[in-house]
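re: ur question from earlier - yeah i can do the single chain one, its not a big deal. heres the input i used so u can compare w yours
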Amino acid sequence: MTVFEQLAAWFAAKILVPYWAWRQPTKPLPGGPRYSVQPGDNVQRMMNLIMPLKDKSAIGRAMAAQAIAANKDEIYAGLDNVGTVHFARFVIVDDNICMFSVYDGDFTNYIRDFIATIGSVFDAVVGLVEGGDGVIPSEQNVEKFIDWVHAHDAYQVPDTVTDILRDQEAMNGDTSGINDLQALPRNIVLQLHANPNVSLGSGYRAYPGYSVAQVREKFGIGW
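and the output i got, formated as C-alpha cells:
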C-alpha cells in the first residue's frame, strides 16, 4: 500500500465515515435470521450471540471460561432437551463471550425452551456480561431476556446485498420499496459502522452427503 493509499484509508476511517454517520444517523439493524414464511427457510437457522464481558482483562476471560466449564454438562444436557439445536459452541473473542448455535424453527421459541431447560445455569454466564444483571434470573424475566438475547445476536447481512436497503427502510418505517442503488455502498459502510459485528449471509446449510431437501423427505416433513 502506497503512502497516498494509507493516507486515503486513514482519512476515510477517521474523518469521512464519522462525518457520514453524523449527517445520516444509521440505526443498528436487529440480529438473528430474517423472517420467512417458507418452512424450508426455518431449518438450520443461526444464532451468533456476542456478549461483551464486564471485566475486559485476562481474569475476566478466565472467569467466563470457568463459568462455561463448570456448567458444561448441564448446558449440553439442556440443549439436548430443547430438541431443535443442531450444534452450539462457546467462544471467547477479544473481550466477548460468544455463543454460536444452529437451530430449527422460531427464534423466540428457541430462547423460551432454552430458558426452561438451562436458564438458571446460563445465568452464571450472563452475570459476567455487560447489562446481564438486568435480565437475570432469566426464568423471572423471560421477555426481557429474549429481547436482550436478540439485541446481542449479530445482524445477518442478507445474501442479496440490496436487501440491506430494505432492512434499513423497514427500520425507518419506509415501505416505498424504492432503492437508491447509488447510495448502497455508503449505506453498507454506515451499517457496518453502527453494527461492527455481523454474520455474512445466511450461511451454508446441509448435511454430510445429503441435502436438506433429502433429509426433510426422509422425515416426511416436506416443504
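The chain is about 45% helix and 15% strand. not sure if urs matches, ping me
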